[in-house]
Design goal:
Blueprint lengths: L2 E3 L5 E4 L2 E4 L5 E5 L6 E7 L9 E4 L4 E3 L24 E3 L2 E4 L2 E4 L6 E4 L7 E3 L9 E3 L5 E3 L12 E4 L2 E6 L2 E2 L1
Antiparallel strand pairs: 1-2, 2-3, 3-4, 4-5, 5-6, 6-7, 8-9, 9-10, 10-11, 11-12, 12-13, 13-14, 15-16, 16-17
């Protein structure tokens, strides 16, 4: 039930195991169930201890550094560090190049850094006609507003008349 493939420095076949390597570079397969490491690489021993890559008999994958191409499908997950995306959806928010949008019709809310739409808008799926919007230059449009507290302004436009305001009051 035991033996070597490739001589004494090659692969070892042992009861329920097939492995090779030394130092921190052991790779192999172990027969087992549940959380037992079925496949492993980059381990510090022939049992898979400290593996940089492992797959358990239950299908749990551990990889300390992975580049994955193609689609990933999962029912849940947790990330630490940075997540980068130029498109997609997260929690009902649509991500596109320079924009983050959620909702539809009158419940649409958006943030846009591309410069073609207002920087902030809500209340319409058409950003330029949303009842609340703020341009990249800071111009605010609100079709209805209740403002409390002090308002500081350098001028006031009432109809077609501009009334300058200075520190002494209305001029």
């Amino acid at each position: 039930n035991t033996g070597f493939i490739g001589g004494a420095s090659g692969w070892t076949i042992a009861s329920g195991k097939f492995y090779g390597g030394s130092g921190s570079a052991f790779s192999g397969m172990i027969q087992g169930t549940g959380s037992t490491k079925s496949f492993f690489a980059g381990a510090s021993d022939n049992s898979g201890t400290g593996s940089t890559f492992a797959v358990t008999a239950a299908g749990a994958l551990t990889a300390t550094n992975a580049t994955i191409t193609g689609a990933i499908t999962a029912t849940s997950g947790a990330f630490t560090g940075t997540i980068t995306s130029v498109a997609g959806t997260i929690g009902g928010w649509t991500i596109s190049s320079g924009a983050l949008v959620s909702g539809s019709g009158a419940t649409t809310v958006g943030i846009d850094s591309a410069g073609t739409n207002p920087a902030f808008y809500c209340g319409s799926a058409t950003p330029g006609s949303a009842p609340f919007r703020v341009t990249h230059g800071g111009a605010l449009t609100a079709t209805s507003a209740t403002v409390t507290g002090t308002i500081t302004a350098s001028s006031y436009l009432g109809g077609a008349t501009v009334i300058p305001i200075d520190s002494s009051g209305l001029n």
